[in-house]
Hints:
eight-stranded mixed beta sheet, alpha/beta, three-stranded mixed beta sheet, 56% helix, elongated, 26 helices, GMP Synthetase, Chain A, domain 3, 2 domains, disordered C terminus, 623 residues
Amino acid sequence: MPISSLDNMVSAGLFEANKLAEIEVIANDYGYSYVKTALNFGFLTRKKYVAFLEREGFSFVAVREEELDAYYINQCELLELNAILFAPLRKLPDGSLLVAAADPQDDKLKTLLSIRFQMPIKIVAASDLDITWLIHIKRGEYFVKESVFSLMKKDPDYSGLVTFTDRQLIFFFGLLAIIVVLLFVNFMSTALVINLVFSVLFFITILFKLYLSLKGSMAEMNEMVTKEEVATIKDNSLPVYTILLPVYKEDRLIRKLIWNLRSLDYPKGKLDVKLLIEEDDDKTLNAVRNLDFPANFETIVVPFHMPKTKPKACNYGLFFCKGKYLTIYDAEDVPDADQLKKCVALFRKLPDDFVVLQGALNYFNKNENMLTRMFTLEYTYWFDYMLPGLLSLNVPIPLGGTSNHFKFDKLIELGGWDPFNVTEDADLGVRVFEKGYKVGVVNSTTFEEANNEPFNWIRQRSRWIKGYMQTTLVHMRNPAQLIRRIGWWGFLGFNFFITGTSITFLLYPILLLFLLIYAIVKLAFVTALFPEWVLYIATFNLVAGNALMIYVNMLSVFKRKYYELILFGALNPIYWLMHSIAAYKGLWQLIYKPFYWEKTEHGLTKVSSSANVQQLNEAEIVV
């Protein structure tokens, strides 16, 4: 589209004249049409653009309902269709080719297509979002298949497509058979040994987490980025930064998401933001269509393909990214305004083998109810204490779900995310370590919405724990090989943290139940299972384990000065029982439907994110 065509929009009051040169620069940098640039970089609203074209005499066609001859659209590459926003539909009776375009005045496009197809071109106006939907559904098959199977083809040992290998099944069923035989031979002695093993595993895992927390509390983050350093960064020196926003039926949060992105202190023309919407999610697509203010993101429609997971959608988005660095935010995330600049500065300071930086996550609705308070305590000790502790020990670090910032080329080298793992971030963090790269920690926080509803919390947590189980099964397919890759210390750290977390939650109610039965019922066979010396060990494990986790939760309030939450740490035993419910649900799903992505409902809180985040920032949080 000639830049002079935008002059009419300026005259019509769609945007100011001084924006024309900026639009042209961004369009040339990204290879986009001018209209796509204006719509996707926050210069123009779709409602105003539609009204402008209608005044110019154009009527819009519903391309999703139009008859389509696939031959013509198949002659065009998806990347080209996506960059210019057009879709060849069919040959008309008069011998011309009917083409739907977001910019029906684009003479350059008409010339290009008339040469390619050797026939007259008739261009009609269509919604850019409907064109986006159509071209990705019709031409995205290769890309979505690569999103699903690329890691499996490139590095099958790291793919979670197979949940249990033959060797793992032989090991599990063989172990079960041995235990059953031993129970028949000598029930009491075997049960006593099992009880001891469970108790010891439980306690060691808790002790390791305490050790991590204490290490994290003492560890100083050597690579901090100060506000002064951020202030010295020149905007023209910054690279393009990609932000992936995978959403599914988040129509209620679209407006909030846009306002959150607007708070980022980064040049608009260098923010390559991709809103990843599933093919069947018309609710979110229509929410974008109905926005009455400019939005700075590009909509990408992910064609249907199982598994229907967040990592698959993110892998699909990688094909359209332009950035040197990349991060992921969820729809409700409120990152620190300078987070991207801090990451650029830190990547420039760190050695080349640091390929990902993890920001801290916390919650803006921490005081909404008991569950949000417990959730906040948990996240605070994880990101402020345990994450630095893992970093100081040089062991695998499971990444958080958002605010992990990657070097784009290294993310591609690693194979992206495993679409079959429902806690894909933790798996990728382990894979980063196994490949010989490092994870850094950036001193910046992203505030999220803490889950405030118990059943919704269990759905979310069961998926996370199931993903930890998947990660264990994938990386423990060959324990000897894993030791060779990451060493004994890394191997122990992985198993005490990733594997141990799931086992602890599964064991907790069993040990608690046996102790309650012993204390209340005093049955003879229970007494036999719990001789006094075993009872002392089991009681100590449970009491000390709970006391240590209560201590860790209480410890977590100090860095962020969340002193009003300190007494809620005493509720950790109840919170752990909720984890155990989620763990057994996750275990069942691991066997029954391992790739099922149980969606978490967002936007349930009645707490304003902007007001609370402002208060937290004014408190000058130090992490």
